[in-house]
């Protein structure tokens, strides 16, 4: 019974000390205490620690904080006595964390549709686990570095696991998005939200693919900002400043730029409205709102050459004139795929306002001039490609709201289909949002991040070699990994490949006498 | 001219400083004068030798370009009875320090043939075994091996050679020394799809690999060292093959 043993040990030591102070020379105390300690604690240490019902393991399992504190006090005095204790601590946390991840994976595979929800649950549970064991470190283990280290290593193990195809970096970014979105954390007050954000940022420290998190975060932030889905500007800025503190300015500079852009965009909009007010002849006949974004800060978007309906085209022209007047040296690239539109549809029963994306609106407006259109005709008139068209037409004819009727009335859109305005459509609401399912961006994000990593590795290698001039391969790899560790964990093979490319491009050469050494070529 | 030439050669060893009037070589004599113009016989022989080399060169060179082109090389090869794909021709090119694959310039020809100490086809043919020996000395082989790759970089700024050609070249250049290793390496190169072409660093790695790594166990191969990645992949492939 280790607990009793420890308590007994503590008592024993106390009594020995008393005995020494009564009978023996004070110099004997230290040696005697050490000897007793050694006998009581060290000799039987492994048995004590690993005992099924009373070792550190069981104390942790049963949340016996007092006993753990005692154990810490005792083993603290023994040379290297804390190592086995911290090892068990680490194993225990790792096991619990891994079990949580497994639970999430199992739940996700049994309810395929709810994969996203499972991720949110997992992150919450990991945060709780972190809070719980952090208390142990501060209370029972007196903030000892060994235990901080044990916790860090444990979390690093299970915080980098993929669940249902989604990396931990993506899961964490989605979690943030949920909190920061409108309606995402209605149940929490501001203080609670701040606390959660704080904890999320702490978790990021354990994730090795921080650059992947940044990119997912940026994409979701873009959507929140552009579609006006952000719940609270202050929370947005707050998490950015926490991220900046933890990961450095470079990590958050683009995101901060994005938030600022939206501010500026609002100002631009006011002066555009003023301009229209002062120049009635320029008015395009539609209510136009434009967000001007600085290219470097935002994720890259494809912009396709869609044929805009006349009214929209006119609006674009007017804004262009207005903008060019104010900024002679800047070029505008229009990303229609990010726009949204409120469009009035006159159905037989009643008119309904439809909230759609710009692309969807462009397609619908084709039916102002034609009753029935085939897929190829729509493609020609809109100038959209087979990449976009099926998805768009599906959302308008096969989804929740059938604004268009499709012939034949099958569930998928093919090139042989034709479409008509569904005048018989009705809904009890006077305004509905016709959803367009998002294209899965995961693949593109991962691709983009991997591409950036190649450049980052190149830059690190060149930087290191430029300063060291001549360096051995293993040292170069180690230095590279260290430099890049703030953002990601580079694959050793990837580093080797980059070194080879740099040799090809004559930035480096292999030393003739020692093929494991490289030299920087100025 | 030939009989003349050999006669000239016979007198080469004499260190006479006079010019015989029987000599009607266009160089250096002013007939009808008592003055004698000194031409050291070695120089004279040199120019004679150069003449021979030039003549030989001219017999294979393209008239308009003034250099020996692939056709010329093929003719040369057939005349000395060696296949133009034979490794000894590559060694010959190395000795000539030929810059451009398939072509020999007059300067390259002159200096190379002189370095070989030959000035006729028959002598060239007889000199080939010694050339081989020379190439195969440790000091020279590395240089020859590197040259063999660079000789294939025919386009300007070309840095890599396609896999097909690399396989042929490996066989040609290393086949005799490391046949079994080369066969396996070639098999792998043809199967893999990571690399469509090989650069000089990888090429040199192949030689080092053949020299240093024990076959077929590959026990002393350490992937943590700076071996080219393609060799790491080759070793993985070999180990999988074994299982």
TrEMBL record, chain A:
Name all Cullin family profile domain ranges.
Answer: 167-397
Q: Which PROSITE patterns did the record assign?
A: CULLIN_2 (PS50069)
Task: Family membership, please give it.
Answer: Belongs to the cullin family.
Protein's name according to its UniProt entry: Cullin family profile domain-containing protein
Automatic annotation (TrEMBL), chain B:
Q: Which residues form the DCUN1 domain?
A: 48-239
- InterPro entries registered for this protein in UniProt: DCN-prot (IPR014764), DCN1-like_PONY (IPR042460), PONY_dom (IPR005176)
Composition bias, Polar residues? 12-26
- Amino acid composition bias (Basic residues), ranges on this chain: 1-11
Give the matching Pfam families.
Cullin_binding
Region annotation (Disordered) ranges: 1-26
Which PANTHER family does this entry report, sorted A to Z?
DEFECTIVE IN CULLIN NEDDYLATION PROTEIN, RP42 RELATED
Purpose = Neddylation of cullins play an essential role in the regulation of SCF-type complexes activity.
What name appears for this protein in its UniProt entry? Defective in cullin neddylation protein
- Taxonomic source organism: Salix suchowensis
């Amino acid at each position: 019974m280790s607990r009793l043993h420890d308590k007994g040990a503590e008592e024993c030591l106390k009594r020995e000390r008393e005995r020494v102070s009564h009978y023996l020379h004070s110099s004997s105390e230290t040696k005697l205490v050490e000897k007793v300690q050694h006998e009581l604690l060290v000799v039987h240490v492994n048995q004590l620690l690993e005992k099924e019902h009373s070792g550190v393991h069981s104390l942790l399992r049963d949340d016996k904080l007092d006993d753990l504190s005692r154990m810490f006090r005792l083993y603290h005095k023994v040379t290297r006595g804390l190592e086995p204790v911290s090892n068990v601590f680490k194993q225990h946390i790792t096991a619990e964390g891994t079990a949580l991840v497994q639970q999430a994976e199992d739940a996700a595979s049994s309810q395929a549709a709810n994969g996203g929800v499972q991720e949110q649950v997992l992150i919450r549970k990991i945060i709780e686990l972190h809070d719980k064991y952090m208390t142990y470190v501060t209370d029972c283990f007196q903030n000892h570095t060994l235990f901080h280290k044990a916790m860090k290593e444990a979390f690093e193990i299970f915080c980098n696991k993929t669940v249902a195809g989604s990396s931990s970096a993506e899961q964490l970014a989605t979690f943030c998005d949920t909190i920061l979105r409108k309606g995402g954390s209605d149940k929490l007050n501001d203080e609670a939200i701040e606390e959660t954000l704080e904890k999320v940022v702490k978790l990021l420290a354990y994730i090795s693919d921080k650059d992947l998190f940044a990119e997912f975060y940026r994409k979701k932030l873009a959507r929140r900002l552009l579609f006006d889905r952000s719940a609270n500007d202050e929370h947005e800025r707050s998490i950015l400043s926490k991220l900046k503190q933890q990961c450095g300015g470079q990590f958050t500079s683009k995101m901060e730029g994005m938030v600022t852009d939206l501010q500026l965009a609002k100002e631009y909009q006011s002066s555009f409205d003023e301009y229209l007010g002062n120049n009635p002849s320029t008015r395009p006949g539609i209510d136009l709102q434009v967000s001007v974004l600085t290219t470097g800060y935002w994720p890259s978007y494809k912009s396709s050459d869609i044929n805009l309906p006349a009214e929209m085209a006119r609006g674009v022209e007017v804004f262009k004139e207005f903008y060019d007047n104010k900024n002679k040296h800047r070029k505008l690239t229009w990303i229609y795929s990010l726009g949204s539109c409120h469009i009035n549809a006159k159905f037989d029963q009643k008119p309904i306002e439809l909230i759609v994306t710009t692309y969807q609106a462009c397609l619908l407006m084709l039916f102002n001039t034609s009753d029935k259109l085939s897929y190829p005709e729509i493609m020609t008139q809109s100038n959209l490609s087979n990449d976009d068209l099926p998805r768009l037409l599906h959302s308008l004819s096969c989804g929740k709201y059938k604004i268009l009727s499709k012939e034949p009335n099958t569930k998928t859109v093919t090139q042989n289909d034709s479409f008509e305005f569904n005048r018989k459509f009705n809904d009890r609401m006077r305004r509905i949002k016709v959803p367009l399912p998002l294209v899965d961006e995961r693949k593109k994000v991962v691709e983009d991040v991997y591409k950036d990593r190649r450049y980052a590795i190149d830059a690190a290698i060149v930087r290191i070699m430029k300063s060291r001039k001549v360096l051995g391969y293993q040292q170069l790899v180690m230095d590279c990994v260290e430099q890049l560790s703030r953002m990601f964990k580079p694959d050793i093979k990837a580093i080797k490949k980059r070194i080879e490319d740099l040799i090809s491009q004559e930035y480096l050469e292999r030393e003739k006498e020692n093929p494991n050494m490289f030299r920087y070529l100025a | 001219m030939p009989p003349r030439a050999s006669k000239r050669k016979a007198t080469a060893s004499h260190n006479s400083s006079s010019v015989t009037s029987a000599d009607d070589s266009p160089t250096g004599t002013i007939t009808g004068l008592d003055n004698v113009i000194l031409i050291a016989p070695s120089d004279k022989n040199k120019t004679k030798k150069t003449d021979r080399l030039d003549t030989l060169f001219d017999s294979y060179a393209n008239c308009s370009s003034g250099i020996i082109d692939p056709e010329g090389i093929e003719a040369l090869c057939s005349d000395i009875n060696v296949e133009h794909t034979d490794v000894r021709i590559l060694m010959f090119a190395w000795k000539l320090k030929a810059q451009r694959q398939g072509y020999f310039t007059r300067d390259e020809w002159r200096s190379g043939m002189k370095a070989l100490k030959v000035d006729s086809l028959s002598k060239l043919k007889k000199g080939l075994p010694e050339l081989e020996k020379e190439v195969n000395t440790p000091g020279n082989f590395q240089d020859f091996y590197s040259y063999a790759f660079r000789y294939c970089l025919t386009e300007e700024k070309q840095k890599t050679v396609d896999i097909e050609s690399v396989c042929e070249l490996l066989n040609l250049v290393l086949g005799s020394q490391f046949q079994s290793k080369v066969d396996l390496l070639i098999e792998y190169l043809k199967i893999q799809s990571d690399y469509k072409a090989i650069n000089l660093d990888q090429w040199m790695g192949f030689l080092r690999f053949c020299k240093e790594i024990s076959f077929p166990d590959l026990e002393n191969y350490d992937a943590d060292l700076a071996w080219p990645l393609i060799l790491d992949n080759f070793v993985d492939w070999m180990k999988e093959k074994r299982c």
